[in-house]
Write a structure and sequence with these properties.
With about 260 residues, the chain is an alpha+beta fold. The strands form 5 sheets. It has a 4-stranded antiparallel β-sheet with strand order 8-7-13-14. The chain is about 20% helix and about 25% strand.
Length: about 260
Amino acid sequence: MTRLPTLSFLLSIMFVAFGVCIATSSADAQVVPCADARGCPDLIVDATKLAQNFIDKANFASTDCAVIEGEIVAGPRKLLRFNFSTPNLGPGDLYIGSPWPHIAANDGWFEYPTCHGHPHFKEYADYRLWTVDGYTAWKALRDANPGVLSRDLLAANPQLAGEMVAGRKFGFCAIDVIQYSTTALAKYTSCFDNQGISVGWADLYNYRLDGQWIDITDVPGGTYILEGEVNAEHFFAEADYSNNSATAVVKIPGKKGR
């Protein structure tokens, strides 16, 4: 992660944001359809859970699943760990069901086998740690290009890469974990047999899980913006994609002198 001159960097991004329309159809990425007669789900990111983050150190062996599956490199690493919760505020449930028929059909919903021994979604959540200037530019791009997938917007603006460190988390399950509505009943409680998120419930990826981090080993001290985005590739059909991300301010200490 490097810092570019603030004024010239922002001007170059703003020119792209307001002068160019990126023609990318988000509908092409949809795989999991709406399956609730009441309507589609509406996933958001709980910013209060994202703010529950801390810095940790860990030493990874080459045989660790997190290393084998590409979520971290082997050796001693400095990690920013955080919780990630995705409430469903839509009119309808997110229904996935059992992963095994999709694995047998090889229809693109899941990857299996995996080192962890359970199926992985092709896409669920994206994590990014931004410099403050970088996130300001990124938000301007997002606002100017609604509906464009984050991956396509980032690919069209490679200058953003120096302002951001991305996480490598693999989504593996979406079930009812946290109740957000007192009247909602949990319907989806098994990663292996019946996945989904009911209206008024949220899934939770706890900070203790593999990949629930961003590697900040080489990130200099300073103030940063942690961004979490659910369904970034519009893998699940939703009622609203404009509210799929949230942020939290993160302060990373610099190296102490003697």
